[in-house]
Amino acid sequence: MIDNIGPVGVIGAGAWGTAIAHLLAAKGLTVHLWVFEEELCETIRRTRENNIYLPGFTLHEGVRPTCSIREVAAACRLLVMVVPSHVYRGVAMSMLSHLRDDAIIVNATKGIENDTLLTMSGIWKDLAPKGKDLSLLCLSGPSFAREVMQGIPTAVTLAGPDMEITRKLQRVLAAPGFRVYTSLDVIGVEVAGASKNVIALAAGACDGLAFGYNARAALITRGLAEISRLGVKMGAHPLTFSGLAGIGDLLLTCTGDLSRNRTVGMQLGKGKKLSQILGDMRQVAEGVVTAKSIHMLARRMEVEMPICEQVYRVLYEDKDPRVVVSEFLGRDLKHEIEYDPQIFAGSICE
Questions:
Q1: Model pTM?
Q2: How many Cβ atoms are within 10 Å of 307's Cβ, its own excluded?
Q3: Which CATH number describes the domain made up of 188-329?
Q4: Where are the domains of the chain?
Q5: Contact between 313 and 202 (Cβ < 8 Å)
Q6: Active site positions, annotated
Q7: Which of 58, 210, 282, 322 has its CA at 20 to 30 Å from residue 122's CA atom?
Q8: Distance between CA atoms of 30 and 113, rounded to whole angstroms?
Q9: Which CATH class is domain 2-184?
């Protein structure tokens, strides 16, 4: 029974992984937290604090830090993946042969792999031996780790293809102050979670350029249109993008002061070079890596994503953000939303 899930493995001890581990341990679950850095693992074990990625919080005693990913994979049926997208495949490969036959994997990483343009669930499907069906779900939504640790009300979406399993895991993951909704749209939730980080870089640059609230609101809205176009083309349900994993997470990441992607964008808008910005950061801003994969994915799927394209050019072609804004505003004028003319005309007549 999923309700008696046993020990839970959280793979990745960044801020979000640490917060999830604490949240589940506070519910009475034993949580094995895989920590990549041996020194940090020992510090967490000794002080009960992740002083690098989530300082200032004492972790629940039910969180058990370890550097042995094989032991975690073998011991835990439920595994929550919270490692950066650019190392995700390597970490998954190190776990694959040690997974239990009944393993359930919840992806809390938000990204698209650069080389393959696969989502995190897609990576697992790519790695799994022929004939082996892994139980794969995705957890996403507006959820800064520090606020979750503080017990500030948070709502997220858990998406999975099997609603019976998803609803049972909903009860496992939900906690006081942490509300979990369910969805069947795994691809939509994953595309939204990855793409919003790229738009957040643009929103941050907008703020760094001191363009004001009007410009930022327009950018977020048009960014959502781009994300929706890509997601629907990949098979997502359009309503997913008006939910927590879509507009909810996009708003948080584009406007919240705790957003690493927005912070990077702001520094770019103020004229700093990307190498200098990243050199001063300890944590990963997923949008920097994902901007490349979203750019390539949009081309492959033949989806127009002008904001994401320009973010790519600023990051990887050293384009001046002010030039980007000038070119973007000078584009041909268009309809905001492309309706079916016959359907729309009929609704007016009625």
A1: 0.93
A2: 22
A3: 1.10.1040.10
A4: 2-184, 188-329
A5: no
A6: 196
A7: 282
A8: 31
A9: alpha beta
